[in-house]
Amino acid sequence: MSHAMDAFFNPSAVAVAGASSSSVKLGNVTLANLLRFGYRGRVYAIHPRAGEIMGVPAFPSLREIGEPVDVAVGVLPREQMIDFVEDCAAARVGSVIVCAAGYSDAGAEGAEMQERLARAVRQRGMRMMGPNSVGTISTGSGFVTSLMTLDPMEVGDISIVAQTGLFAGGFARWIASTQRFGVSKVACLGNKADVDEVDMLSYLEGDPSTGVICVYSEGIHRGREFLELAQRVTETKPVLMLKGGSSELGGRMAASHTGSMAGEDAVLRGALAQAGVIQVRGIDGLFDAAKAISYCPVPAGPNLGVVSITGAGTVLVADACQRRGLNLPSPSPETARRAGKGLPGWARLVNPMDIWSATLQGTVEDAYRVILGAFAGEKEMHMLMAVFTLVPESEFDAAAVLSAIREEHPEKPLLACFLGASEVDRRRWFSALEEIRIPVYDSVERCVDAAWALARYAARRKNRGG
Amino acid sequence: MSHAMDAFFNPSAVAVAGASSSSVKLGNVTLANLLRFGYRGRVYAIHPRAGEIMGVPAFPSLREIGEPVDVAVGVLPREQMIDFVEDCAAARVGSVIVCAAGYSDAGAEGAEMQERLARAVRQRGMRMMGPNSVGTISTGSGFVTSLMTLDPMEVGDISIVAQTGLFAGGFARWIASTQRFGVSKVACLGNKADVDEVDMLSYLEGDPSTGVICVYSEGIHRGREFLELAQRVTETKPVLMLKGGSSELGGRMAASHTGSMAGEDAVLRGALAQAGVIQVRGIDGLFDAAKAISYCPVPAGPNLGVVSITGAGTVLVADACQRRGLNLPSPSPETARRAGKGLPGWARLVNPMDIWSATLQGTVEDAYRVILGAFAGEKEMHMLMAVFTLVPESEFDAAAVLSAIREEHPEKPLLACFLGASEVDRRRWFSALEEIRIPVYDSVERCVDAAWALARYAARRKNRGG
User: Fold this and answer.
1) Interface residue of A103, A256, A319 to substitute, partner B, most B CBs within 10 Å
2) Domain range spanning residue A363?
3) What letter would DSSP give residue A303?
4) If you ran DSSP here, which 8-state letter would residue B18 be given?
5) Contacts of B423 in chain A (CB under 8 A)
6) C-alpha separations of B113 from A430, B79, B127 in Å
7) pLDDT tens, residue by residue, B105-116
8) Mutation for testing the B interface, residue in A391, A394, A424, A445 having most B CBs under 10 Å
9) Residue where a domain terminates, one of A243, A271, A292
10) Counting Cβ atoms within 10 Å, is residue A73 exposed (0-12), middle (13-18) or buried (19+)?
11) ipTM of the complex
12) Claim to verify: residue A99 and residue A234 sit in the same structural domain
């Protein structure tokens, strides 16, 4: 038996209410997305008069379709929503995505309307995503109900559950046009009157196409259930969370955004950490960590071996590691011996290692190969980081060098960051490295933060095993 | 009389030692940079045999040039450097940039060689930048001595003093190819055996083409002098500092990178703040703040008025403001009245304001114009921030709308950030907004950090006036 949430991502048939035959409304955007992503299920439009919208057959109501429909998308004003739910129930449509806003995000009257809507849904045994949801994305099935025009993304193992439409909007477009990582599912929970983080976490736990679970939440209503579930899920799948509304004012804004309850943030954060949830900073931090965990193996521990062509890179890495509690173990005599041939006589091997001196003696390529290669063989260095600055004078085939090192030590995550580059160089290096699944960052701090997330996940897995 | 440092940025003549007629050495890169940036002074190469290198006349020694030379660049092994300094002295060249590494960045022997070099320079009354300097940049005169191939940058009012070559390397290339802000001067101090932050701060204080001073330092040798000077400079020019080596390990790395002393970081940070120096996080933070201060007027206070098309944007802004101690004052009844016509009946005006509901009623453009316009008129909101997410459905001419608001309130900084965008959309919006000097950021947190830097500078100026 499939999970109840599956209807929001892999339905056999969907109906969209709110498209228009004459003007471009948000419902039309949803229809266009379904067509553009190549959704292979049946699609219907619900419209009082039109027989067809954008090539999609249209019916005045769900009841008149005469074929089973798994999920209905209501891109309608809030005033029409209860009627729409009743139509769904009459047509035995079990799941509904409600896009209208103006509910708990809009004061007491809206909250009351939301309660009525949720009651209507519950009484009919249906499940609802929203209200105030921007929709869902499933790259595997091409099922996309977003209200925002999207371009197809790579299929991948990162799934996102969010109390905002951003990940089914601007960030989905950002991923599609600039990122190499793939996405499995995106759920925009909106006001969470029914489907919430607990439902989604339970679904994604068992979803074979999801490897990394990202959550943006402004407050967990069913805190105890979520924590219990997370405690189990995080033993096998990483759960990353960006908690919005962690400040007093942010909490108040969260209340007006999605009607979330604030005020217990510190307690919640502690409990989330206990349950193995990795809490990140900012949306950048969420994607940075997700990418590292998606690309890399689980490291054996939290220690880094770092090679940088710039001395400032080693200083900034050390500062960032200390802030994050990551260790930079000193190289063993054996490693120093192995790396020694790449260094001028006066240079001493340390970690993080500034290879500027080595590049004055040999080539930049040799310096990275010999010294990062030596660090890769160091048992106490569980993760490797290469810090680059891209100038014509430091040009080499980094992807070839790093992949050779990784072939010898496939068990060690290998991360990279750029300290300055021209647009063209950055793009070229980024593509070459991310193509072979070496995660690349534009600052030392973001790279170290991603390594920290890897280390957190590793610790969680170890605790479970030990 | 010109400042002693002027020879490093606006010399009438320069000689470069270390270019080669037969192979491409770093000295050749320096010559090529001078030609590419259109330096209009005289250029000479120093080479034992060649009569000309890359079209530049070459002489076996400085003494044989027979014309006055203001500054010499030594792209030579450390072993030849004392002889080179003696040649400089004999030719009455008062300033020298030493690019060789392997001095205090390389253990006791190197430190001793550095002391000998510094003594040689001092005894001859010369000034030295370095050793271990990657060079200098002055966009106004086209004088560029970097060892890294650079492309010309926009002339602007941001100057950078750094104990790393990154800003005369990868980051100079990043600025030239991706940024709209201009640069005045870059000094790579290297090991600071002679010229240091005090010299440069004193120079930039009086430099009319410098409006914002950025410092990356791993430790200030002449702490008291720097603090006294900064105390005065920051009253009229903002000084931003990224302090590397703030952790214990980072401090040790700094010692091996540039021979800096660590260990007093907490004390130094407190003293720097007292002296009005604005301390930033990471290189991103340095540029983010510099851009905001370069583009924007000095705000009357630290309060923000924020309009966001996404509710999550308001939540994240509130969290970031609380962390940074910035206030988000509630709109006055008068402002609420002015903005009210842009809102659905059920929506209440707050700050930060989520305009998602307003866009369901009217257009996105109207929502920003009416509500941000109303916030601009609010006396207690000293800075304005627009949070965008770029999807086709939210497309409008933001530059036109924001510049109209700014025309009515030119005294208020106006900042923007994007929460998600396709590559193409981001580029287009970034160019349109930065073209009219509205600073744009890729995250809410970075935008708030930049506003915080503006607020810090405003507080400093107020303290001085009051």
Assistant:
1) A319
2) 298-465
3) B
4) S
5) 174, 177-178
6) 40, 9, 17
7) 877 889 999 999
8) A391
9) A292
10) buried
11) 0.95
12) yes
